[in-house]
Amino acid sequence: MFGFLGPNGAGKTTTVKLLTTLLLPDEGEAWVNGYHVVKDAKKVRETIGVSLYSDRGFYWKLTGRENLRYYAYLHHILPREAEKRIEKLLKLVELKKDADRLVEEYSTGMKSRLNIARALINQPETLFLDEPTIGLDPASARRIKEIIRKFADDGGTVFLTTHNMEEADQLCDRIAIINRGRIVALGTPGELKEMVQGKQVLEVEAVGVKNGLVDVLQKKINLSYASVTIVDPSSFKARIRIGFDGRGESALPTILEVLVRERVKIQHIRLLEPSLEDVFITLTGKSFDEEENR
Amino acid sequence: MQERKASYPSTRILNLALDLYAAAYNSIKTYARYPMWIISDLLSTPLWLIMIMLPIMLFLPKNEWSNPDVYRQFYWGMIFWQVVSMALWSIGFTIRREQQMGTIEPLFLTNANRIVMFAGRLVIASMDLALSMVYLTAVMSAFFNVNITVKSPILLLFSLILSMLMSLGIGALYGSLVIKLKEASALSNILQFILIGFSGVFFTVTKLPENLRIISYIIPYTYCIDLVRHAAIGSQTLLEPSIELLLVAILTALFLIFGYIVLIKIEENTKKTGRIGTY
Amino acid sequence: MKKKIVNFLLGVYAVYVKEMKLWLRYPTWILTFIAMPYMVTGLFSGIGYVIGGANAIKNFMENTGTSEFFLFSLVGSSLFMISTIIMEDVGSSIRSEQLRGTFELHYLTPMSTALIWTAHILPHGTISLITIAGTLIPALVFSENLSLLGIVETFFILILALIPLFGISLVIAALTVRFKEPWAVVQVIRAFISVASGFFYPIYVLPRWLQLFSLILPTTQAVELIRSILVYTRHLTLTDYRFSLLLILSLIYFIVGFRVFGRWEDYARKKGELSKY
């Protein structure tokens, strides 16, 4: 399972589309399953499955089963074989009961699962999933993750894009962190977190956070990094993430003093172990949200 | 891998057949699930026929208004109009719809033939055409006491099939333009009028003044329609029937080839600019 | 009371500006609406001329009482175009609002939704007047039938005809949104009204039973009146039965349309149909 992690606009979907032959590159080369993505585009398409939007790309007036059948034929799977695969996939994604209902009646979660089924219809070697759990409730997201995990455990390769760090951390064997079209880090989750090993992270949830707070903190305390993510612009509610080299408890009184002086109302404060977000902040100087909002 | 090879037959013809079957499957299933459309088509077709006939018949003397040949001319005009419309309203608008629904990218992730993939709408148009012929024949008989007969049924069928295939090719060419323009209804309406006016849809092009006939000779549909009319009512053709048939077959093949090439180019272009899914 | 009027006018203004902006964002449509009647007229006249041969115009004169075949057809084509726009637009606007998810939001405003949809008559009226002016004035300039009084009378009849057309459009909107398949319903109603209204031919050519039905269509009266003014150069008289009929039908169609739409709204609110598409 390979994760492609980055904020919105980093280039994750563009990369997926390049690798899956939906985009032609201006320069450079890439191979998928041993085939060149431009010169052997047809071969690439035969060996991959792609899920681009979790809940779009279906014909509303066809049932789930009919949609799968349609795509199976376009993948040149003969009818008898297509029916066998469709049954198996509907069972896998738990849509057997609703297989003969029109897609226009499906919930978002059902469409997402149908999307996965469609991506698997041609028994690909590699599965490309672009934010497969976005917009899903926890139960549906969990189910999708189980399906993806099973595919990987059965020997398939998964290329997964996400901007959800927990998801990447949970699912992926290796992760590339991408920002502004460039890979800024590559490794296993453990290797990436080693970049921030020895650090401790203080997370503060507060209201009344104004611009310039990070600069004030940096002047007063020796920080490794700090980032502010606005949670609610109307009340200036934000999440402040402060990274320290070493233990952070000693800096706590100074931090509190600064926040109180800056008239910030603290709602929640906690010490954390560094996560992939901290890796991103260390490498880029900004949090995901700050990067998306630039 | 072995399993895939068994499932993926090596023959191109079989793949093409599967692509066509898939396109037809999708279109027919979807069409059948909009029953109001089918009913609406059945109800409105004869009404449009009347609306076209009556203003034109004002240019004829009243005693011609009960002439069965006049009604037959309009009957076949309606049929030809449907054939001509296929080119303008089929592939281009199918592609637009697929873009709007978000299904175009999944389609381009398959190796299905690009023209055949979008031919689904043509399948429906062909079914509609067949239904219209039957239905309008009944309307002509019931309301106007006019019997519709066909001089050469086999030639009629063959020339209609060729016409529809030509529509597929022209539709692919025109469809590529639609993708570029993003909003082509106005152009389609204008072209439709030009085609109806100059292709001999409601009258043989020999009735046009010499200087306007040149336009007709450039339009490929002129020969399709001429051939179908000859097969239907035995009218004289512009060229020898066998030569005209050959010409139509060659034009059909050319348009299919060019249409395919242009669609592939458009696909390449949209992949370069990242605009496959945008509409 | 004053506040109510101001709020109402604000709502009407909001609808008008929104609709006009949407129309003007695609200005090619206005050109299409002006060009289309000419294309239809050219097609019918051209085909008629070819089929009719040397006596084509003479035959037309005998059948219609005028040799102005181009103007005759052009009047019908522009009115056909306008009636199509108006009949279809409310239904398709509502449908696109449903697809975008903005339809339901109208029901969260304090403004009466009935008034919101009725306010659409103003932008439609504007588009109609632009269309008819753009289409007919150039043709009238070239014919000998141009008169300022004729144009004023035509606009007056047109504005009157918009009212029942809008009523029909509310019925179509209710049906199409209820059944989620707009074009199918519109197609049939439009085809029937078009045939029976005599846009392109005098009513007497229709079968007797259809002529009776034509009488109760406001579009028939509007076409006959406008044709009488512009083609046959007769002036509008208030004693003309067609004018009285148009007035009565305007009222009836509008009230019926309003009621039908109101009934559908109640049904949709109960069944949660407002957000469905």
Task: Give a quick rundown of the structure.
The complex is a heterotrimer of chains A (294), B (279) and C (277). Chain A has 294 residues and is an alpha/beta fold. In chain A, 39% of the residues lie in helices and 23% in strands.
How would you describe this protein?
The complex is a heterotrimer of chains A (294), B (279) and C (277). Chain A folds into two domains: 2-187, Rossmann fold; 194-292, 2-Layer Sandwich (Alpha-Beta Plaits), CATH 3.30.70. Chain A is 39% helix and 23% strand. Chain A contains twelve helices and twelve strands. In chain A, helix 3 (64-74) packs across helix 4 (79-92), helix 4 (79-92) crosses helix 5 and helix 5 (108-120) runs parallel beside helix 6 (138-153). Chain B is globular and about 60 Å long. In chain B, helix 4 (68-89) crosses helix 5 (91-101) and helix 12 (221-233) crosses helix 13 (241-273). Chain B starts with a helix and ends in a 6-residue tail after the last helix. Chain B has one domain (2-273). Chain C is mainly alpha-helical. Chain C has one domain (2-271). In chain C, 80% of the residues lie in helices and 0% in strands. Chain C has helices at 2-24, 28-52, 56-64, 69-100, 103-106, 113-118, 121-142, 148-179, 182-197, 208-215, 218-230, 241-271. In chain C, helix 2 packs antiparallel against helix 4 and helix 8 (148-179) runs parallel beside helix 12 (241-271). Chains B and C meet through helix 3 and helix 10 of B and helix 2, helix 3, helix 4 and helix 9 of C.
> Measured on Cα atoms, how large is the radius of gyration of chain C?
20 Å
Q: What is the straight-line distance between the termini of chain C?
A: 37 Å
The percentage helix of chain C is: over 70%
Greatest interface by residues involved = B-C, 35 and 47 residues
Q: What do the pLDDT scores of chain C average to?
A: 84
Run of helices and strands of chain C: HHHHHHHHHHHH
Q: Helical stretch count of chain A?
A: 12
